[in-house]
Amino acid sequence: MAKLFGKEYTRQELLKKTGNLSQVTGLKEYTFNSGRAKGVDAIDVNAGNLQFTVLKSRCLDIGQASFRGYPIGYLSKSGLRAPAYFREKKGIGYLDSFYGGLLTTCGLNNIGNDCIVDGREYGVHGEIANIPAEKVSVTEYWDEDELFFEISGIVRHSRFYAEDLVLKRKISTKLGSSKINISDTIENRDFARIPMMLLYHINLGFPFLDSQSELIFPKLKKSWARTPSAEKGLTTFKEFIEPVDGIEEECFYHEYDLPDKQARICLFNPQLGENGMGVYLKYNTEQLPVFVEWKMMRSREYVCGFAPATNYVTGRKVALEKNEFSYIESMEEKHFEIEIGITEDRLSD
Prior knowledge:
Blueprint: E1 2-4, E2 7-9, H1 11-17, E3 26-31, E4 41-46, E5 50-55, E6 61-67, E7 70-71, E8 74-75, E9 100-101, E10 103-108, E11 115-117, E12 120-122, E13 134-143, E14 146-158, E15 164-174, E16 179-188, E17 194-204, E18 214-216, E19 220-225, E20 250-256, E21 262-269, E22 277-284, E23 290-298, E24 301-309, H2 316-321, E25 326-328, E26 333-343
Antiparallel strand pairs: 1-2, 3-4, 4-5, 5-6, 6-7, 8-9, 10-17, 11-12, 13-14, 14-15, 15-16, 16-26, 17-24, 17-25, 18-21, 19-20, 20-23, 21-22, 22-26, 23-24
């Protein structure tokens, strides 16, 4: 059954009550036509309570998202920009086009710090978030009384005399759902074994993030600060405060004790909705063994980031020196799956 407006409906009931299903649900494709977002192709998904925008021109990442009208993701003051404005690929030029949104994909040849390796410059978090998707398929279909939505496509991360990686992505949900499933496959189409780095930059903002919010983790094995500035926050990494002008970011690494390798992290606001509401991330720690918490309490940059990754975010150069890289063999495919959803129950520690 498809749940909509607090009730469950069969396919026949919904069709009888509407002349066109786009009255209450569905997919809408369009292109932004002004400002720095001009030329960005996008797809709006209306799954009832859950609504979000997939950015075809930016790696099939997810921009704005909401649940029952409550915004989920953080949107930065950089704003949405077309890939044409991503001119400075080196250094920290990535920040000029960091829109945030619910999901920004990072990699595939660098995550974390910018660096130079063998004369080639690698910018912060790589380039893939600014590469448009190809062969995009947009589908909605009924399976008995459930209406499903799927968006799929490929993103080519390739360069002459360098890597030839292809990201194949599928984003799916259904009418009445409170979750988004993202299934990725990365294929090495070259004839050489190469280093590969992937990070899912999930950015959560107000009102899910507020001073009364808390992070709920599975059983933690170890936590440590990524930078010296975060050392002072090791005892309060689960807690949040009101925005502070000029405060520094804090980033932490977390490891879990999970025999089944299924991690579920939640940002929960007990004062949201009737009985509290949270955003959770579910993923497999074998696929993504590193987890970074990004805690930024600065005014206007008030955001909590979930960032599961294949490697530490020290940059390509350090990863190579410390042999911390994840390699992908010639013609090999690596699979990654994450689930982002809303819960109205406080998930247990």
